[in-house]
Specification:
single chain, about 190 residues, alpha/beta, Rossmann fold, 6-stranded mixed sheet, 3-stranded antiparallel sheet, globular, binds 1-O-pyrophosphono-5-O-phosphono-alpha-D-ribofuranose, binds 7-hydroxy-pyrazolo[4,3-D]pyrimidine
């Protein structure tokens, strides 16, 4: 029988509280606003995981920004391991040729998703291309990714919340927590 989902009860430990996340997001927004002052920045959110981060980050940025959305997928179904196969499910809506682009991600794990995306977006000839990620799991890296703006470096645990999912659930938690292993052992 399918086990009942318990949104908060399925979380073993809170890794980052809502306050910690919001504080760090505000700092990132301040730095980005300073670094890109006088430029017109395009934020490219990598859906679906980066949705809450993007929504909060863009509102802490005090310079004009354009936004665009891409959806890619590398974690099939309910897997906790990247399939390594990156698929574009939704492409950019506008040209980024000549633009200063900042990719907004929720997490870098193996790095395969961003490695693919960086090459793909470079091919569209932006003026500059940088990376902002809320979370980084350096222990899991298979390909080096140059991170320009980092929220938090985290240990090698499977986390959910603030956009991050397991089987498409838990994205609406306001904190980032470690999922109980029993949940994905089922
Ligand atoms: C997750 C996450 C990153 C990627 C990181 O996306 O949002 O995009 O995996 O993993 P990697 O560094 O090992 O490639 P996912 O494919 O699960 O899609 P989602 O954002 O819709 O949850
Ligand atoms: C992708 C992903 N999604 C949810 N939780 C994690 O810990 C993850 N790592 N990579």
């Amino acid at each position: 029988m399918r086990r009942q989902i318990d949104l908060t009860g399925d979380v073993a430990e809170i890794l980052l509280t809502e306050d910690q996340i919001q504080g760090r997001v505000a700092e990132l927004g301040r730095r980005i606003s300073e670094d890109y002052a006088g430029q017109e920045l395009t934020l490219v959110s990598v859906l679906k995981g980066s949705l809450p981060f993007m929504a909060d980050l863009m509102r802490t940025i005090t310079i004009p920004v354009r936004i665009d959305l891409m959806e890619v997928s590398s974690y099939g179904g309910t897997a906790t391991e990247s399939s390594g196969l990156v698929r574009i499910l939704k492409d950019l809506s506008s040209s980024i040729a000549g633009a200063d682009v900042l990719i907004v991600e929720d997490i870098i794990d193996t790095g395969l998703t961003l490695n693919y995306l960086i090459r793909y977006l470079r091919g569209k000839n932006p003026r500059s291309l940088r990376i902002c990620t809320l979370l980084d799991k350096p222990a899991r890296r298979l390909v080096e990714i140059p991170v320009d703006y980092l929220g938090f470096s985290i240990p090698d645990r499977f986390v959910v919340g603030y956009g991050l999912d397991y089987g498409e659930i838990y994205r609406n938690l306001r904190f980032v927590g470690v999922l109980r292993p029993e949940v994905y052992a089922d």
